[in-house]
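Same chain as my last thread, 184 residues:
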Amino acid sequence: MTQAAGHEEDLTSLRAQNAEAFTRLVASHQGIVLGLGQSLGFFGADLDDAAAEVFVAVYKSLPGFEGRSALSTWIYQIACRTMWKLREKRKRDRPQGSTEDRADPATPTPARLAEEADVRERLWAAVAELEPRQATAVELYYRRDWPLERIAETMGCPIGTVKTHLFRARERLRNSLRQEDLFA
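reply #2:
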């Protein structure tokens, strides 16, 4: 069987909401969904809940997937919309001044790959404080190494807007990290 034929079989199984095919889909896309959640400030049980909501939305939408974009791009579009809404809901529901959703220093972060785990942890905590579209652009561009075209398609905006989100995010991060004496 060719790779294209296997791909078509997978899409057919997914559109039919086959449990085994969906389990494989979750396993192969879980990392990027969790990474987005961390970049938007979700940690621990909140991160697990947000990822679960994303995959519920993906599952419900699978019969309508038309294949006009890559499956991973389509999943990430759903993840972005779902997590942005969850983040806004959490902000509305949270009492003013609450810090319950801040990263716990003991919580493992992507910063383990970095030489200075503390600095990286503060950096990603600062990213989590960015406006959702800026945080998403940072996640996709810097952590996932996606090209600007794919980010624009995923976020549903022009490439120039992605560049603007990245520029503004860098400026906010630079100012935030200066205040913590992490950036000269």
